[in-house]
Amino acid sequence: MPLRRRKAQLRTRAGKAAVDGYGAMDARLPVSELAKQLVRKAFPDHWSFLLGEIALYSFVVLLLTGVYLTLFFDPSMTESVYTGSYAPLQGVRMTQAYTTTLAISFDVRGGLLIRQIHHWAALVFVAAISVHLLRIFFTGAFRKPREANWIVGVTLFVLALLEGFAGYSLPDDLLSGTGLRTAATIVGSIPVVGTYVEMFVFGGQFPGNDVIPRLYAVHILLVPGLIVALITVHLMLVAYLKHTHWAGQGRTNKNAVGSPAFPHFTAKTTGFFLMVFGVLALLGGLAQINPVWNYGPYRADQVSGDAQPDWYVGFLEGALRLMPPWETDIAGHTVMWNVFIPTLVLPGVVFTLLFLYPFFEQWVTGDRGEHHLCDRPRNRPTRTGLGVAAIVFYAVLLVAGGNDVVAFSFRVSIEVMTWILRIALVVAPLLAFALTKRLCLALQMRDRRRLTEGEETGQVTQSVNGDLSESHRRLSPTARYRILMRDVPTPLELPTEGPVPRRRRVRTALSGWYYRDLVELPATDEQRSRIAERTAPPEPVRGPED
Known about the structure:
This protein has 546 residues and is mostly helical. The protein contains 18 helices and 8 strands. Strands 1-4 form a two-stranded antiparallel ribbon. A two-stranded antiparallel ribbon has the order 2-3. α3 runs antiparallel to α5, α4 packs across α5 and α11 crosses α12. The longest helix is centred in the last third of the chain and has 40 residues. The protein is globular and about 85 Å long. The chain starts with a helix and ends in an 11-residue tail after the last helix.
C-alpha cells in the first residue's frame, strides 16, 4: 500500500509539472494554436504521398548511422602501413581514411552493418527525392501557391547529390579516388580560374593533402545542416499551405481532405518509419554494397576497371563519355570544352530549367489562381511528355556512363556504342515525347468511351444472327467524378486588333502547343458549371481592413 500511494503521488506531481510547464510555455509562445493546427491537419491517404516520407525517414536513418560511423572514422590523408585484421592488405601503405574504413568494416562490432545501412539509406534517400519530385511535376503540385516549396525540393535534390558524392569519396579507396580524379578534372576545366580552384580544393596538386578532410566537413556538417534547415522549411510550408489531393467525391480546389494528424496519421507514419528502417536494415545485412577492401587504397597511377559512380551522378560520367573531344587553345591556355560543357554547363542548364519551370508554365497559361487538386498526367499531355523525355534523356546518359561495360556485353566496339548513344541522346527523348503525348490522348479517348458506353463487364452475348457483343455497365459516380474533374487551361489567343508584340506571339504559340491537343469529355451544361465551381481557386483571405 505505501508503495502504491507513493507511485500515485509521483504520478500526480509529474502530471502537475507537465501542466505547469505547458502553461508557462503557452504563455510565451503560440503553442496551443500551433498544436491545434497540427493535430487537425488533414493528410491525404493516397500511396503516392508516401514518397516524401520515404525520403524523410531515409534521411533520419542516415543521421543515426552517420553519427555512429563518425565515432570511428578518421579523415586524415596521412599514410601509414596497414597492420589490421584484413590479411590481403597487410603491409600496404594507405591513408588513415582508408585504414579506419577497413577498421569499421572488420574490427568495429556492427560496423560493417551500420556502414552498409548508411550507404543503402543514401541511395534510397536520393531515389525517393527524385521520384517525389517526379510525382510533384507530373501532377502539377508545383503550381501556385507551392512554387517556393518546389524550389526548396529541387535545392534539396542538389544538396543530396553533393552529400552523396562527398560520402562516396571519403573511404579513399581506388574506386572513390577515381571519382575524385574526375572531379579534379571537372574543376580544372573551368576557364581562367579552374587550376587555381583545383589547387585550393585539393590543397595542392592532385591528389593533394586536404580534400578528404574538407569533404568530411562538408559531409557531416555543412550539407546535413543545410538539408535539415530546408526540410524544416519544406515541412512548415506543407503544414501552412496544406497538401494537394486527388479529385474525388467531396474534394475540391477549396478544401483539404484526409486523415487527421493525430492519432490516425501519427500512428500510420510511425509504423511506416519502422518499416523503412527495417527494409534498410535488411538491405544492409543481406545485400553487400561498396566492398572497399576489394578495390584497395587509392593510388594516383592506377584506375579501376569497369569503374562507374553511384547512379545519381552516373549521368555526368555518361555526358563526359559522349562529348566529342573539343578543345580550344587561347593564348597558351587550353579550354577543355569536352569536360566543361557536359559536367558544368549541362547540369547548370538542367537545374536552372527545373527551378524556373513553375514560373514558365504559369507564364504560358496566364493562370494566377491557386491549385490544390492534383492533375491526372494524361490530362496534361505536353507536360507529361516533357517529363518522360527528360527521364529518357537522363537514362541514355546513365547507360553511357557504363558504355565500356555495355559494349563488352554486346560484343560491339566502344566507338560504335558511343555513336549509338550519341544519336539516342537526341532522338530518344523526341520519340519519348511524341509517344507519351499520343498515349495521354489515347487514355483521354478511353475515358470518353467509358463515360459514353460505360465499363466493360467481360460478358459476351451472341445474337440470333451470330453477332457478338460485349455488355457494358454504367460507371460508378466516383469514377465519373474522377474523370470529369479536370482543370485544363484553354490556349491563349492573339488580340484581333492592333499590333502584337513578338513576346506576346511567342507566348500564344507556346500556349497553343501546350494545350491545343485535348479530348473533349461528354458533360452537360450543369455538370460543366459544377466542375468549374469545384475547380475554381479559393477566394483570397481578406484582412479586417478589407
